[in-house]
Amino acid sequence: MALTTLWDVAYFLASALLTLVGRVIPPLAAPLSNGDVIWGLSALVFGAILLAASMINTIMLIWFERKMLGRFMDRRGAMHVGYAGLLQNFADGLKLFRKNTFKPREADELGFYAGPIAYMVTSLLMFGVLPISTGWSDGSLPLSMLLALVIFSFAPLFIFISAWSSNNKYSLMGGMRSAAQMIAYEVPILLAVVAVVLVSGSFDLNTIVAEQQNYWFWGPLVLAMVVFAIGMLAEMERIPFDLPEAEAELVEGWNTEYGGMLFAFFMLADYLRALAGSFLIVLLFLGGWTLPTYVPSALTTFPLAGIFWFLVKTYAVFGVFVWIRAALPRVRTDQLLRIGWMRMIPLSLAAVVLAAALVLVKCLPVFGCIPSMGG
Amino acid sequence: MAAEVDTKKRAQGEGDQGLIVKPMYTAARQFMKSLVRPSTIVYPFERLEDPKFRGEVRVASGKPIGVGEVWDNYRGVHALNINTCISCNLCAFSCPDLCIDMVTVPGGDPKHPKKCPEIDYGKCSYCGFCSDACPEGCLTMTTRYELSVTKRSDMVYSPQKMFDQFQRKLPMNPIRLARPANEDAILLDAPLCIGCNACSRDCPTNCITMLDIPKGTPKPGEKPAKRIWKEPVINDSDCVRCGTCISVCPKECLFWGTHT
After folding, report:
1. Does this complex have an ipTM over 0.85?
2. Contact status of B17 with chain A (Cβ, < 8 Å)
3. Number of A:B CB contacts under 8 A?
4. Per residue in A57-109, pLDDT tens?
5. Domain count of chain A?
6. Are residues B161 and B196 in the same domain?
7. Are B24 and A74 inside 8 Å of each other by CB?
């Protein structure tokens, strides 16, 4: 059996595991060889692989940010646990895991505990939708990009729930800011996505990547990409749009009252969202796991080449976010909303118009054509 | 006025370039600069005095620093050469923090025990006066700056411990000022002297010799002196001006003064 897709790998692992169990305990061999059982277990293994991949990538992303920020600040970042501090974040996670989590006396128990967990879970859900490479997800969802964006926009709800349940004025203010900011920037993000959808003619991320085989969308749709990236920055609540956790004003924003593992959930979910945002930018504008056709085929045919190039692009995109974080100051609330409503939305509308023009002319002189439009 | 105009321009959005492009450029330049090697010296693993920083890190005077070279004006833990210490007490006299005690070390005779400085680094302010005052150059300051201890008593460095510093051959910084030419000398108020030999006995440099002095012709009606009078004569070039002789003199006939 050729293990070309992730589902094949999961199915192979699950059936091997069940066969092993059947060998060890002979009476179980017959019921365990049932196809439904194998299918169910391989679905679990599939999910576990996705979970592990997204978690490890997230933690590596934090490491990457720490090291890069260190260089921006002329220092070294984490460097003691593991080689070059690679395991530092695992150590930090372990430390947070061991800490006591306690709840303020007047806090609402259900919301206080359910908020971070729901935030974490919805952030993880996205990675079931986002394809990393061909064969990463079995079959394709026709509306996978829309689903990813919908899951992405769950966040303000859970942030606001946990902020309100904390019964702390700083948390509440941070939650309100977070909700206002995320809702304000949903609009330009979706409009920028509309530009991509117009050109590629599909809501399916696999198709969108396939449509970029002649040229990546960032060339003709650079306006949409800029709007999308800035909107993503605001959605991820990263500097310069980290108003909801403005340390100078709001202690720690909406997670002021959280400590221990619940805080770790928030932190991890933030970076999960950052990872998912970088994934989305790579998928929509930077050609996903593909490379331009003129690069030598040796670069694209080695095993796991798709995943490799996808991650390289993702980390490069995230590197730009870190660069922005290192360079720019935090904006004020009024500036944030003015940028969102008065600059981003006109720009994204212009991007949509440009995309429509691109659909009309079908082929560009320098870039070439899009496959579905006669390329 | 100019500031007002700037604020206005910035409010109109003209400052975007200054607020986004310039910081991004500055950050990128800094990133590229520290990509090869950040400025941070990872202290416990590498030190400023490592040879690889010799050319890079410079002190204020422009001299490069490094192993085997004296950092200009750096004053760290003392090193004491017990063998050349003459127990003159000058370091303890000169200490403004009173952190130097003279303690007995083996090597002296029972009547005149050898005493060497013991320094309490809890009080020391690293002014270097002791090192300056030391006439034999045996108390010097090294470039060692690591002093963290877990007990307060560990901050007191015995002479033996400072001798260990000396034997480690750390880069030393002998702070020596040129002695002024018209320095005070020890003078004798001869009529008061009883020739007791105490100064000569206790002089750490043995620069005092007791010479026979004729007591002069007796005045009419006095008996001539029967015994030989001795008086201290001080060899100024050997004298280190420690003042021990003044403090041991029973008749207070030695005093600080200038040769006329």
Report:
1. no
2. no
3. 44
4. 998 999 999 999 988 888 888 888 888 888 988 898 889 888 888 888 888 88
5. 1
6. no
7. no
